[in-house]
Amino acid sequence: MLRSLKRVYHLLLAICANIWFGFPGRKLTVIGVTGTDGKTTTSTMIYHILKRSKKHVSMITSVQARIAGKIYDTGFHVTTPGAWQVQRYLREALRHGDTHVVLEVTSHALSQSRVFGVPFDVGVITNVTHEHLDWHGTFSSYIQTKLSLFAYADCAVINRDDQDLWQTFLRMYPKKRYVTYGIFSKADVSPKTHPLKLQLPGEFNIYNALAACAAAGILGIDTKTMLAAVCDCTGIPGRMEMIQEAPVRIIVDFAHTPNAIRNALHTVKKMTKGKLIHVFGSAGLRDASKRPLMGEASAAYADTIILTEEDYRTENVDDIIDSIAQGIPDNKTVYREPDRKKAVMLALSLAKKGDTLIVTGKGHERSLCRGKTEYPWSDQEELRRLSA
Predict the structure, then answer these.
(1) Is 166 exposed, middle or buried (0-12, 13-18, 19+ CB in 10 A)?
(2) Which of 16, 37, 43, 289 could make an SS bond with 260 (beta carbons 3.0 to 4.6 A apart)?
(3) C-alpha–C-alpha distance, residues 264 and 259, integer Å
């Protein structure tokens, strides 16, 4: 009942916002990007492609909003802003003379109608993996919610390698115009059609780049320009962000799902001569079923695991750590340190020359939620200070 009321509230708010700001999305070319992992990187790559193509473009992601040449903080722990803020950003971009907007869209935003009234010229979906089942109930429902972006989109860009996603898309939208991308399947956009030499590491970033290229192709951008743009991307705050190269490599990443942790650690493990040390936790009052899977994903690659806090809110942080630990085999070296600062200090004390320390879960975020209070926190700032 409460969720239904929330949906009605957000829908009414979106309708009012569209009317108040004059339906700005109708006068813009809007590219929407959704998916469990990779949304921010893919959105940013599309933004860079459009900028290189001399388009006047704005962007709204979980890291920040770049609107009309200004940078805005999009808030605590939120990817897609509320409907009123979305429409205000679109109106500001239009007033500034922008013609294109890249908008990162979460499943919560879709289910709560925060982007209602935004006509997407292109909808992009990166992947769908285990996340937010506390809200969506089942994985099938979660996939369908993600794919609901295409109900608003003229053309879909979809990951052909994600079979659950691909098959559900075909059932839901048998007549929708689409472009596929992938590495292993017979996709329209692949490393064969778009050879990449990325500066960003990991197979997951190849997927992100291919998705961005597929979207750019729909918008009429030539292949040479799009490849140059994605291959020039050097990094995004909180996404495989290198804090220090030596003597201990230190990395901060936003990975907070089992799939993202597995991908990040798999990539980092290959570049590590010594041991891989992983510091992470799981958010409170969010999908609890993913926690053991996060532990399992970490244990697949990390030599030393330090479990700590990550926005535990009103949950007991030790209970969250217990839940993560259920997925970690007994033969793994595991430390429990509920205080994130102390956990980072412990990791640095354990690290030796040639080791890699990766801290995941917070990424670009600049606060920790304890109870109902947001406390200032930055993984990057603490790691730089403590490792100096």
Answers:
(1) middle
(2) 37
(3) 9
Q: Report how far residue 196's alpha carbon sits from residue 211's, in angstroms, rounded to the nearest whole number.
A: 12
pLDDT digits (tens, 9 = 90+) for 312-363: 999 999 999 999 999 999 999 999 999 999 999 999 999 999 999 999 999 9
Mean pLDDT of the chain, nearest integer: 93
Buried b (16+ CB within 10 A) or exposed e, 52-71: bbeeebbbbbbbbbbbbeee
Q: Which has the closest alpha carbon to 236: 49, 64, 50?
A: 64
CA angle, corner 67, sides to 230 and 145, nearest 5?
A: 70
Cβ neighbours of 167 (radius 10 Å): 11
Q: For the domain 2-232, what is the CATH superfamily, name and number?
A: Mur-like, catalytic domain (3.40.1190.10)
Neighbours of 373 (CB within 10 A): 9
Between 340-350 and 379-387, two packed helices, what is the crossing angle to 10 degrees?
40
* Neighbouring-strand partners of residue 192: none
Q: Is the peptide bond before 195 cis (omega within 30 degrees of 0)?
A: no
The residue type found at 228 is A
pTM: 0.92
Q: Which CATH number fits domain 241-387: 1.10.10.60, 3.90.190.20, 3.40.50.150, 3.40.50.20?
A: 3.90.190.20
